[in-house]
Amino acid sequence: MNGRLTGKVAFITGAGRGQGRAHAVRMAHDGADIICIDICEQIESNKYPLSTIEDLETTSKLVENLGRRCIAVKADVRERDQLRDAVQTGVTELGHLDILVANAGILPMALGNPKPSDFVDATDVDLLGVMNAVAVTLPLITDGGSMIITGSTAGLMPGTTSNSLMGPGGSGYAWAKNTLIGYVEQMALHLAPRMIRVNAIHPTNCNTHLLHNDGLYAVFRPDMRGTKPTREDAELAFTHFQAMPIPYVEPEDIANLAAFLASDESRYITGQQIRVDAGALLKFPNGPAG
């Protein structure tokens, strides 16, 4: 433990597994106590499985194994009252709040049955869920705190989610992540007088359930339409997406940056769009078809 976050408390959404769990573990390693939430149930339009209550409990145990306190609450980022109750429970127990990591996100895909509601589901979680997290933490977060928003390289890159297989859910995901760019910059301006930083991290392909599912494998391998691409098939296309010859980054790569942005070492860094994308946007500035 290097202590860069000692004495701080972080509120992390979507912490049951994947990037959210990595944030919780890394920040606990660096000395923070954690308030973590996840939906712990399925959203029908999202075809890959979302986190379970057991996943959230595992995250809590991993934090506690590092000697830090953890308040884990089942809550849905689409429901502002649930978020408000969760963060208030955590602050009552832990005393204060210094860090927000608005990480929860989904990628609904049509898989042959597109519905307009898929767009709504994606934007409700990926955009409104972030705005709800900011809204409920704003009255509680300490001056000099840090808000960290999970975006996506796909939100910066044209054409990444326009594949017909992804349908309205893919469009909603990309629109939400792109809209977060301006939202982060606006919040950074408005919170600057309180010395609160607001920054976005934009990952490329990341080694989580959102990437590893049959629907996204099919999107990355349209040449295999009519068959069922395997993970190995998809990883060939995943690797093509980055400038560096890797198929994806790890959740810990995102958590490493978030820990820095949460710390006082980044005290004057705000309103930034920081990519952890292995050069993907440099390779395809006009999108993968450009």
UniProtKB/TrEMBL annotation:
GO terms for molecular function: oxidoreductase activity, acting on the CH-OH group of donors, NAD or NADP as acceptor. InterPro entries: NAD(P)-bd_dom_sf, SDR_fam, SDR_subfam_1. The lineage of its organism: Bacteria, Bacillati, Actinomycetota, Actinomycetes, Mycobacteriales. Signal peptide: none annotated. Belongs to the short-chain dehydrogenases/reductases (SDR) family. The keyword NAD applies. It comes from the Bacteria. The keyword NAD applies. Keywords: NAD, Oxidoreductase. It comes from Mycobacterium celatum. This is 3-ketoacyl-ACP reductase. NCBIfam families: PRK12826.1-3, SDR_subfam_1.
